[in-house]
Amino acid sequence: MKKILLICILFCSLQPTKAQDFLWGLQLKSGIATQDFYEESGRLVVPELAFFTNYQVPKLPIEIGLSLGYGLYGTQLEKRDDLYVGFSDELRLRRNNNTLSMAGVFRFFPQVYGKVFPFVEAQMGALYSYTRFKIRETVSSDPIEEERDMGNWARMSQLGGGVLIPMGKSNANLELRLMYQNTGRLEYLTKGDVSFIPDPDGEVNGVFEYDVKRSTFNMIQPSIGISFYFE
């Protein structure tokens, strides 16, 4: 995986650079759990915001690039007064389930001429799933405690396609994509998978109990985005 990303970066840096050779864009994705991800977690939806930049290879209908994404697939707020022994004020316990994705991008444009430009796209990289919590007195106060409950890496690949629709005479484009994501198996938490167990004797602070899920992060990902070629 690291070798693929390095090859993409080196390839881009060695090509003659012209501003119009580069495409920069944002994609808003909505991942829908499939296969064992669905069987383990139900019909989970993973919204993700991804930034990508592609290099247009001269004289070829090919773009190569990099994509970075952040997703939030669950958040939970608890208001508790039993988190710390000897402290009975109500505190806010916020827990977020997150993903980070990093991938090399290969995009091929078939020789189809018209008002829209279809493409086939493949990505290969890694997915990091992690859960964090913060304990605060109020929503705007500094955290009393913040930690990562769990974090796991897995290899990731995506395959699919879409259409690029130029928006008038500007360099802006509307992009519609449909991708299938496949990953290795990893351990993760979803909303409601963590319970707080207070000490029954009230002598020490309580502990968190985890109901860990184990599966791939396989999803169908429809998305919409905007991209720009710069002149």
Notes on the protein architecture:
The protein has 231 residues and is mainly beta. The chain has 2 helices and 12 strands; from the N terminus they run αβαβββββββββββ. The protein has helices spanning 2-14, 35-41; strands spanning 22-33, 45-56, 62-80, 91-108, 117-136, 145-166, 172-183, 186-188, 194-197, 207-210, 213-215, 219-229. The strands form 3 sheets. An 8-stranded antiparallel β-barrel has the order 1-2-3-4-5-6-7-12. Strand 2 and strand 3 form a beta hairpin. The radius of gyration is 22 Å and the shape is elongated. Residues 1-19 have low confidence and may be disordered.
What brief labels describe this structure?
9% helix, mainly beta, 8-stranded antiparallel beta barrel, disordered N terminus, Porin, 2 helices, two-stranded antiparallel ribbon, 231 residues, single chain, elongated
Quick summary:
This protein is mainly β and 231 residues long.
Secondary structure topology:
Elements: H1 2-14, E1 22-33, H2 35-41, E2 45-56, E3 62-80, E4 91-108, E5 117-136, E6 145-166, E7 172-183, E8 186-188, E9 194-197, E10 207-210, E11 213-215, E12 219-229
Antiparallel strand pairs: 1-2, 1-12, 2-3, 3-4, 4-5, 5-6, 6-7, 7-12, 8-11, 9-10
Helix content class: under 10%
The average pLDDT is 89
Provide the structure class.
mainly beta
User: What is the overall shape?
Assistant: elongated
How does the major sheet shape up? 8 strands, antiparallel, barrel
